[in-house]
Design a protein that fits this description.
Layout: H1 3-24, H2 28-48, H3 57-83, E1 92-97, H4 102-114, E2 118-124, E3 127-132, H5 139-154
Helix pairs in contact: 1-2, 3-5, 4-5
Amino acid sequence: MDRQAWTTLFHRLLFTSAVWIVLSGTDAKALAVGAFAVPAATWLSLRLLPGRDRLVLWRFLRHFPSFVGGSLQGGVDVARRAVTPRMPLSPGWVEVPVRLPDGGRVALGAELSLMPGTLAAGVRGDRLLVHLLDTDAGFENAIPREEAAIAAMILGTGKEVGP
């Protein structure tokens, strides 16, 4: 394996380890199971989504606070809508043009699906299909910003993505 492959393997292993610890904690039994589950998940992720585009870890860490902030803000909005029945809802679908490579599209869809009020449900050509809790709330305007953030992580730029 070349240096790029080792770097990709290390980053995936680090990421899946962090996810495992966040989800199952640091209990000895959880760590023992994780000793088998984490390498298996890492291997599977490399088989399903080979590391063609380089993810620089510090770029991911730079984006993480923005992601958490957006998730919290969206969660508060959804909770407010749940306890205030008079708040307007206008659920619907939008098709958002995406110029990221395949791995970036998957990352963008996953990130959007983790944010309250949005659910990425597939791709149609070069467009991402997203269900919005409120089509009048401006979520579709935030999606290009998230695309730029993903591009900054995998391509090293937030300005220009795609061909």
